[in-house]
Design brief:
- By secondary structure, this protein is an alpha/beta fold.
- The chain has two domains: 223 residues, Rossmann fold; 232 residues, Rossmann fold, CATH 3.40.50.2000.
- Helices cover 43% and strands 14% of the residues.
- It has 17 helices and 16 strands.
- A seven-stranded mixed sheet has the order 1-3-2-4-5-6-7.
- α8 crosses α15.
- It is globular and about 60 Å long.
- The structure holds uridine-5'-diphosphate (UDP).
Length: 476
């Protein structure tokens, strides 16, 4: 039997946020952290999810938990294991919560059986990590079955769901029907947006907490254009770079890192030259991120008018273990790419980024987002979209869909551009063309974007909301 994996993270001192958030916010945060430590009085906060790397949840836990540990709170992180059948079922539930039938399979008795068997194995191992009174924070559908077993050990259990859609359809209902029996008794529910929560969760147990990013993580840390260019050159994503810089970055543990792996890139001809205009979307290879639609919209409405390049970058498909659809979606993109005329193929690049070293992968994403003239996130459904906050923080002109958590991060015409319908490729093309041609407007949106991310999407806001939630739990 596979063991659950404990992810080891070093604590980080949140004081390093002070110069960014300013003295008042920093002081407020110090008070909140000290009160939380006192109230917790040695209880643990155990986070449980289904992958240590790849995707937004893992990304966020890596830095948030490091800060929690940095203020002296014991916050272990466990990653459950699962069989391919288990992850096929949980992906179906996940797609359902995004209104999509996914692979079209059932969510009936046989699927409950698959789900329950894996859950029971994980629960048995997790029990060893939990003491009565601890707080267990379970993330996403893969962990829903652990609510009851963790409560049986005497823990307070919070289930946090990072996905959802504003409108419900049969697919959404079906996923909630599957999950409801496991979740009924949870002490609290956390959702990114109120609309995502099913009615039964909104009975006084619901808290709304949007995610956040960390400005010091390899994904978001400052990086000079020269270093970004060197990283992209060494990865094979950019040509025409000869600046003597080396592709270095700082790892999460503070040690120096260097990018030395290559991306797998599908392209005709050389990668974009450092001086050419570049549009980027970074996403998992998931249909709802619509990499295919980005490519088609770009081919129809941008390439001929601008000569800009597009890089679609996602993880190496074997790198995200809880996402069985990745390879299939990448294949669909490759097929479509092959059908494009030669001129478009020279401008559109599909890149699979190396995942062997999470920090290195993050540094590559950082460099790509920073070098991009425009970052897009044309999702058809989106829980929150950490890639959006990442782009805003880097002051990038942004184009995204008005769906899920994206409009919570971007106000159209102020700190980015939103299209109303993700399938409207002409509108997408127009928004991208506007930002490519009006550089002054694009730069203004970018400056506002950075300010927005600083105000609303950093860790101090996020952790303060958690502290309030735990405080409330404690007084039940
Ligand atoms: N990401 C990454 N490498 C990749 C593709 C994505 O590090 O090759 C990251 C991306 O930068 C973001 C996260 O994965 O931090 C995706 O989170 P988001 O909320 O945008 O979407 P999710 O994958 O959770 O649906």
């Amino acid at each position: 039997m596979t063991r659950i994996q404990e992810v080891h993270l070093q604590g980080l001192d949140p004081e390093r946020l002070a110069p960014i958030i300013g003295p008042e916010r920093a002081e407020r945060f110090r008070e909140i952290a000290s009160l939380a430590r006192e109230k917790l009085a040695g209880r643990r906060i155990l986070n449980v999810n289904s992958t240590a790397t790849g995707g937004g949840v893992a990304e966020m836990l890596q830095t948030l938990l490091a800060y929690v540990r940095g203020v002296g709170i014991d916050a272990p992180w466990a990653v459950i294991h699962g069989t391919p059948e288990f992850f096929a079922v949980t992906k179906r539930i996940h797609n359902g919560l995004h209104r999509s039938p996914g692979d079209g399979g059932e969510l009936g008795a046989a699927e409950h059986e698959v789900y329950d068997e894996v859950t029971a194995e994980n629960a048995a191992q997790l029990r060893e990590l939990v003491r009565p009174g601890d707080i267990v924070l379970l993330h996403d559908p893969q962990t829903a079955g652990l609510v009851v077993p963790m409560q049986q050990v005497g823990a307070f259990v919070v289930w946090r769901c990072h996905v959802g859609s504003d409108d419900h359809n049969d697919c959404v209902e079906r996923s909630w029907e599957f999950l409801h029996p496991y979740l009924e008794s949870a002490d609290r529910f956390v959702f990114t947006r109120e609309h995502f929560a099913p009615e039964w969760a909104n009975d006084g147990r619901l808290a709304i907490i949007p995610p956040s990013i960390d400005p010091f993580s390899p994904k978001n840390q400052d990086m000079t254009p020269e270093v970004a260019h060197a990283i992209l050159r060494d990865t094979g994503l950019l040509s025409g770079v000869d600046n003597g810089s080396v592709s270095t970055f700082t790892r999460r543990d503070g040690s120096p890192g260097r990018v030395d792996r290559h991306a797998d890139i599908l392209q005709t001809g050389p990668p974009p030259d450092v001086d050419e205009r570049l549009v980027v979307q970074v996403s998992r290879w998931d249909r709802l991120k619509d990499m295919l639609g980005v490519m088609e919209g770009f081919e129809r409405h941008v390439v001929g008018n601008s000569g800009a390049h597009l890089i679609l970058a996602g993880p190496n498909v074997s790198g995200v273990t809880d996402d069985p659809e990745g390879a299939e979606v990448l294949d669909e993109c490759v097929e479509a790419w092959r059908e494009f005329p030669h001129a478009a193929r020279t401008r559109i690049h599909l890149a699979c980024l190396p995942m062997a070293d999470v920090d290195e992968n993050a540094a590559i994403v950082n460099a790509l987002q920073r070098h991009a003239d425009i970052v897009v996130q044309k999702s058809l459904a989106e829980g929150f979209g950490l890639t959006v906050s990442e782009a805003l923080w880097k002051a990038r002109p942004f184009v995204g869909t008005r769906v899920g958590g994206i409009p919570d991060q971007v106000t159209d015409g102020e700190d980015g551009l939103l299209i109303d319908d993700g399938t409207d490729l002409a509108a997408f093309g127009r928004a991208v063309m506007l930002l490519l041609t009006d550089r002054e407007y694009a730069a203004r949106l970018g400056r506002n974007a950075h300010e927005r991310a600083r105000r609303d999407f950093l860790g101090d806001r996020h952790l303060a909301q958690y502290a309030a939630l735990f405080d409330d739990l404690d007084t039940r």
